[in-house]
Amino acid sequence: MTSPSHRPGARAHRALVGAALVLLGSAASAALLAEDFNDGVVRYTATGVAGAVNIRPTSDVINTSSINGFDGFFPNGGSFLVIGDQAGGIGNGAPAGPSGTIIGSTQSARFALGSFGPGVHRLGVAFDFVFDTSLAPGTAQARNPDDFVVSLRNGAGVLVELLRFDDVLRNEADRRGRFSGEAQFALGSADQIWLDFGLTEYANSGDSAVGIDNIALIPEAASIALLGIGMIALGSVRLRRRPALS
């Protein structure tokens, strides 16, 4: 009699488990998203005003200007992502909120992260950012009410808000730097997830822009385990449905 551990189905299941463990080991060191914008490939979906989201070299005037720019925030060469500016230094007049209204105009860059299974997920997220405006301290308007928000989203809306600024003045130190943290969210069923960088500009409040670079998004152990367990479970179901050998 053939023992259970030597049946073809058992051997196939052991092979499946081994493959899943190899996958988990490789996934542990693999990023869901690693983007420095230097290869010229557009991996995001832009929303909002046409042309308001684009990739630029660090030599671009928005990064090198000491007036209405990012003031050399990205000094390491290569390229970076700009949201909310179309023609150079901040303050060129476009895009902005609809004239005469308090309704903002939102531009965003959205990065697809793939489908996540049901359960609790933990992701390590990091990126360089700058949020700046043409409105300087001492002007008649006290602050620019424009908003910059970074979030993880699914089809229903925001899952986790990673970073939020509801206003900005020129050259504010806390609105430029590197974000690094953990995001946790729970799903009841499999769903598509995106990392979203969004800038909302309001009318008659001075123009703003956002710069983004060196994005890294890495699944932590719990999320990797859910992926591996799901693969093993799927493989087991397929093996059970396989006709018995004569």
Structure description:
The chain is of the alpha+beta class. The protein has a single domain, classed as Sandwich (Jelly Rolls), CATH 2.60.120.200. It is 19% helix and 39% strand. The chain contains three helices and eleven strands, in the order αβββαββββββββα. It has helices at 8-28, 61-64, 221-241, and strands at residues 33-35, 44-47, 53-57, 79-83, 105-116, 119-133, 147-154, 157-165, 176-187, 191-201, 208-219. Strands 1, 3, 4, 6, 9 and 11 form a six-stranded antiparallel β-sheet that branches. Strands 2-5-10-7-8 form a five-stranded antiparallel β-sheet, with no helix packed on it. A hairpin with a 2-residue loop joins strand 7 (147-154) and strand 8 (157-165). The longest helix is centred in the first third of the chain and has 21 residues, at 8-28.
Topology order in helix (H) and strand (E) letters: HEEEHEEEEEEEEH
Overall tally of domains: 1
Uncertain runs with pLDDT below 50, 5 residues or more?
A: 2-6, 19-28, 226-246
Question: Residue share in helices?
Answer: 10-25%
Rg, Å, rounded: 23 Å
Structural class: alpha+beta
Major beta sheet summary: 6 strands, antiparallel
N-to-C span? 13 Å
Number of helices: 3
What share of residues are in beta strands? 35-45%
- The second-level CATH architecture is Sandwich
**CATH fold-level name:** Jelly Rolls
